[in-house]
Amino acid sequence: MDVEHLAPRIKELRTQIDELERKRLDLVESIRDARVQLLEASIVKAYVDDLKALLSRGSIVEQKSFPRSFVKRIEVNLPQVAIDYTIPLETKKVEPLTREVLPFVFSGSPGRTRTCNLVVNSHPLLPVELPGKDNHF
């Protein structure tokens, strides 16, 4: 290939790299400026009541395993208690791809080995012939 054929593609890729770098810097800056909004006590109480009602309907095993799925550690230093936990995040529906990432290319005919000639096949490597859709060659 000549350089003159590659030059437009290289220029296009450099433009994409620059654009992605700008987006990355914008995201880093927005994360740095992000602030955590504290919840009001009434909202937390509503969540606690909802969780209490949910757990009351389950078996003792379910009641114990559910909090263990997100509570990582509880540290008690009276009169304070610290709880390390993770909050399940809202998941967004992912749009399906409109094109394949890698195309699938099939070689040969379906139901047959790549080398179907019994004389050519290596008998020590494959002592038993696997049947395909058509057993005649």
Could you explain how this protein is built, in words?
A two-stranded antiparallel ribbon has the order 1-2. Among the domains are: 6-35; 39-86, no CATH class. The protein has 3 helices and 2 strands, in the order H-H-H-E-E. The chain is mainly alpha-helical and 137 residues long. The protein has helices at 3-33, 41-56, 60-68, and strands at 71-77, 80-85. A hairpin with a 2-residue loop joins strand 1 (71-77) and strand 2.
In short:
By secondary structure, this protein is mainly alpha-helical.
Structural key phrases:
137 residues; 2 strands; single chain; elongated; mainly alpha
Radius of gyration: 30 Å
Compute the number of strand runs.
2
Oligomeric state of the chains present here: single chain
Summarize the helix and strand pattern as letters. Answer: HHHEE
Unreliable segments of 5+ consecutive residues? none
Strand content: 5-15%
Q: What is the number of helices?
A: 3
Q: What's the main sheet like? A: 2 strands, antiparallel
Q: What is the terminal-to-terminal distance?
A: 43 Å
pLDDT averaged over residues = 76
**What structural class do you assign from the helix and strand content?**
mainly alpha
Helix content: 40-55%
Shape: elongated
Strand order of the largest sheet: 1-2
